[in-house]
Amino acid sequence: MSGIILYGNDISPPVRACLLTLKALKLNFEYKHVDILAGEQLTDDFIKHNPQHTVPTLSDNGVWLWDSHAICAYLVDKYAKDDSLYPRDLVLRARVHQRLYFDASILFMSLRCITRPMFKNNVSIVPREKTQGIIEGYTLLEKFLTSAPYLVSDCLTIADFCCVATATSLGGVIELDAKKYPKVSAWIERLKKLPYYEEANGWGCKRYIEILKTRLTAIVS
Ligand SMILES: N[C@@H](CCC(=O)N[C@@H](CS)C(=O)NCC(=O)O)C(=O)O
């Protein structure tokens, strides 16, 4: 065994970003399912390793790490045969970081601010103004993809993995309009062609969207 353990749940977009990275690197790893809807991440044992009690959490031979963006970068730096997924070139790496921070602070947050009250307090009605963040997210992605097939130039990177896991999940609240966002739509289709996409992101995302659709009853102005 490789000694790599990923604690996760396939409904979680950040977990799926790590699965995309692990699969792209063809790494052997153990996957430990954490039932976050039942609060399994809140046990003393889990919090001892990750005080933020979030999935994904990684243990690499006893090195504990959390946050999908940090995990994906670590895995490529440590295990990849080349640096294409996380370039060492200063400018390219800076651009990857910009997209990763965009996912962490803007894109994923636009979803989390809606889904957290749903999962924590059974809130089922969402004020329309809260969905504005999702529209802004799609709009910015469309701009980032204006002149290149991937988020950082011509090369697939972990920025694509992190952002696509979130972007495909936004459809649980506001479906992507392919006419309005053709570049985003084409970029998602491009990523769907990866041989490991369905296993790492596709089916978990479908399940996540199904769950959101059962919980979200209305978006109100
Ligand atoms: N920025 C973090 C976000 C992780 C996150 O919020 N995970 C959610 C699931 S999508 C979670 O573990 N929630 C359970 C909790 O906060 O207790 C990352 O990218 O890993």
TrEMBL record:
It comes from Bactrocera dorsalis. PROSITE patterns: GST_CTER, GST_NTER. PANTHER family: FI01423P-RELATED, GLUTATHIONE S TRANSFERASE D10, ISOFORM A-RELATED. Homodimer. This is Glutathione S-transferase 1. One of its GO terms (molecular function) is glutathione transferase activity. Keywords: Transferase. CDD domains: GST_C_Delta_Epsilon, GST_N_Delta_Epsilon. One of its GO terms (biological process) is glutathione metabolic process. Residues 89-216 form the GST C-terminal domain. Residues 2-83 form the GST N-terminal domain. It comes from the Eukaryota. Pfam families: GST_C, GST_N_2.
